[in-house]
């Protein structure tokens, strides 16, 4: 029997991806108690501040100096989907928009022609640790969408659809549908929340799917078939072991799958968790330099020139690592002044 697994890959912090996906980072930091200023109540001695990716004591400051995270930086030519399973992210951008999201929320941003933003990880709790677990996924934009207006959408946890499926033995699977519709075994279609305007990945014909799948111990669940010739990758990021049809699989690996075949996934151990990334390849040339993703070297040079000239609207905030205070709850303030909460 032919295996549905086309390729196996090891998982590090930055996970392997395939067109239309450019990048997937898994941040899993066990941050300590906060210090009252949203930073860690711990010594930063021995860390390479500004470039701290080593993981001393199970956490990293990344590019932050006082608060962990990623101070102001530009993007052009792609989309980011940031799914925060645990902990919080403080957002600020060059359009004057801002937000705090987390505990299951997703921010979907189409950078388009250019935006600056910061993504800080505020340690809001002073009386207990502040763990954070999140995925940041980068999706390419085709040439016709590279220069659309930037915008972001909030997919709040409370509104994000979740499908619960029970196998023949009564064990449960849970599918969180961030992007791409999911059809239950009973035929019911679970439809995701709306992406930002001008999102290529949000168009149905591109069959982009981003799902988080949780399987109880010994549960089985069938990943439904999709169209042929899609890139479909399943990341096994928590658990122990199991099988995809007849093939043995283990935690800490990614599996490129045949998209037109359904796959029966059986969890052999403790609770198992998977991330699915699926989409139709764009199939265009990719020229990338850091936060800019274009089709040609000339377009990359233009992106750098435009950023140097305009700063993509400038930076309207007092700090490059802008945060929103210890007491602030989850919210989103958009460029037009509209404020949204879960």
Question: How would you characterize this protein structure?
Answer:
By secondary structure, the protein is mainly beta. The protein has two domains: 21-158 and 311-316, Jelly Rolls; 162-279, Jelly Rolls. It has one helix spanning 297-310; strands at residues 5-10, 14-15, 21-31, 69-75, 78-86, 88-93, 98-102, 106-110, 115-120, 130-140, 151-155, 162-166, 172-179, 182-183, 189-190, 209-215, 220-223, 231-238, 241-244, 247-250, 253-257, 263-267, 272-279, 287-289, 292-294, 331-333, 339-340. A seven-stranded antiparallel sheet has the order 1-21-18-23-16-13-12, with no helix packed on it. The longest helix is centred in the C-terminal third of the chain and has 14 residues, at 297-310. The N and C termini lie far apart (48 Å). The mean pLDDT is 97. Residues 64-139 form the Pirin N-terminal domain. InterPro entries: Pirin, Pirin_C_dom, Pirin_N_dom, RmlC-like_jellyroll, RmlC_Cupin_sf. It comes from Marinomonas ostreistagni. Pfam families: Pirin, Pirin_C.
């Amino acid at each position: 029997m032919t295996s549905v697994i086309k390729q196996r890959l090891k998982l590090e912090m930055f996970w392997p991806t395939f067109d239309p996906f450019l990048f997937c980072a898994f941040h899993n930091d066990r941050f300590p108690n906060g210090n009252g200023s949203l930073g860690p109540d711990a010594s930063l001695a021995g860390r390479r501040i500004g470039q701290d990716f080593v993981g001393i004591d199970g956490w990293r400051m990344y590019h932050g100096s006082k608060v962990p995270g990623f101070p102001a930086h530009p993007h052009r030519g792609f989309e980011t989907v940031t799914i925060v399973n645990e902990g919080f992210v403080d957002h600020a951008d060059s359009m004057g928009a801002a937000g705090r999201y987390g505990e299951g929320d997703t921010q979907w941003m189409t950078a388009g022609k250019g935006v600056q933003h910061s993504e800080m990880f505020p340690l809001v709790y002073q009386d207990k640790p502040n763990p954070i677990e999140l995925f940041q996924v980068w999706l390419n934009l085709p040439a016709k969408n590279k220069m659309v207006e930037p915008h972001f959408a909030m997919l709040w946890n409370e509104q994000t659809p979740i499908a619960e499926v029970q196998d023949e033995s009564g064990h449960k699977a849970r599918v969180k549908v961030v992007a791409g519709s999911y059809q239950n075994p009973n035929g019911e279609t679970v439809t995701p929340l709306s992406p930002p305007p001008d999102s290529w990945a949000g168009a149905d014909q591109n069959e982009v799917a981003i799902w988080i799948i949780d399987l109880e111990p010994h549960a089985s669940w069938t990943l439904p078939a999709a169209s042929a010739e899609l890139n479909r990758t399943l990341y096994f990021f928590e658990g122990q072991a199991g099988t995809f049809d007849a093939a043995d699989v283990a935690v800490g690996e990614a599996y490129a799958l045949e998209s037109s075949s359904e796959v029966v996934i059986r969890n052999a151990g403790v609770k198992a968790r998977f991330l699915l990334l699926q989409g139709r390849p764009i199939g265009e040339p990719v020229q990338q330099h850091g936060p800019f993703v274009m089709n040609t070297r000339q377009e990359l040079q233009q992106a750098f020139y435009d950023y140097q000239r305009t700063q993509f609207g400038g930076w309207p905030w007092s700090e490059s690592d802008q945060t929103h205070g210890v007491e602030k709850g989850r919210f989103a303030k958009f460029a037009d002044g509209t404020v949204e909460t879960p």
